[in-house]
Amino acid sequence: MSDKNHPEKQASGLTRADIIRPENLVYQKPELMNDVNMHYCPGCSHGVVHKLIAEVIEEMGMADKTIGISPVGCAVFAYRYLDIDWQEAAHGRAPALATACKRLWPDRLVFTYQGDGDLACIGTAETLHALNRGENITIIFINNAIYGMTGGQMAPTTLLGMKTSTCPYGRDPKLHGFPLKITELAAQLEGTAYVTRQSVHNVAAIRKAKKAIRHAFENSMQGKGSNLVEIVSTCSSGWKMSPIKANQWMEEHMLEFYHLGDLKDKD
Amino acid sequence: MSKMKGAVVVNTDRCKGCGLCVVACPTHTLALTTNEVNHRGYTYCREVADTCIGCSSCAIVCPDACITVYRTKAEDR
């Protein structure tokens, strides 16, 4: 980085070079995250969640023993960004593939990473049945209320009145039905151990989301049952907003309907 | 009382100029470029003041993991 715009001598008497030393390092890109540039749009929540997953796996020391199942959707290329083992599932079928992986290799940490179109629409059956069977897997569910990759179409999770490319006048319950709260459904199932809803729009929320992911991963390794971590996310391109505006919109509208917090935590 | 002083190093090639770090920074240390872009055509963030306290907020919210944060105690003055 160029120091052109940065005064050489700081007010405290420390130069920039004094501060930038390995022993002063407090935050850097997780080692499990590859150097390849991610294809996500600027400000996309996917990047933050990828980072959290990489950090949690690193902290758990499971880098060589983790299998991620990447879905169809924007996260289809997740296998390029995190340096762990990955499988690519057919649309919506990630929980089924995760079930197979976990049953064949019970000592592996198996998680799926799915969007709301993949999990709450096309793969509803696989998702609910895998959760109900109590498979020792974790499902990371990224809910941005639209189909982000294919151009912002209406998804089952789209809010009432929300405009998308396939409901340009807003979602109308008479015509399109009501938004689906899949996390509330999952909390009713006997097989689930930990069901939570988090978001990643600010620092506090990101720290909480990281703890939730860690708890879910630990549960699945201890054989407590299936775990669902919903992350309420933004899709600035699909919502046609700037990333900053999208975060504000999410806080005002999405969180009003999708309440954050743990829905179920079975000990 | 000693104060914390920090510095950030931005991987400007990786940055997509989303601006989330600029909003997250409590000390207004970061800003996006206005007339420069990186090799992929994005504006990018950089330090514009020496007010960094090394809190890592910018790096935590960065979706592309572009920011490395350093922090040390400054001497009493």
Question: Can you describe this structure?
Answer:
The complex is a heterodimer of chains A (267) and B (77). With 267 residues, chain A is of the alpha/beta class. Chain A has one domain: Thiamin diphosphate (ThDP)-binding fold, Pyr/PP domains (Rossmann fold). In chain A, 37% of the residues lie in helices and 18% in strands. Chain A has 11 helices and 10 strands. Chain A has a 7-stranded mixed beta sheet with strand order 3-2-4-5-9-8-10, with helices on both faces. Chain A has a two-stranded antiparallel sheet with strand order 6-7. In chain A, helix 2 packs across helix 9, helix 4 packs parallel to helix 6 and helix 5 crosses helix 6. The longest helix of chain A has 19 residues. Chain B has 77 residues and is α+β, with helices and mostly antiparallel strands. Chain B has one domain: Alpha-Beta Plaits. Chain B contains 2 helices and 4 strands. In chain B, the strands form 2 sheets. A two-stranded antiparallel ribbon of chain B has the order 1-4. The model of chain B has no long low-confidence stretch (mean pLDDT 92). At the A-B interface, helix 1, strand 1, helix 2, helix 9 and helix 11 of A face strand 1, helix 1, helix 2 and strand 4 of B. Strand 1 of chain A pairs antiparallel with strand 4 of chain B, so a sheet runs across the interface.
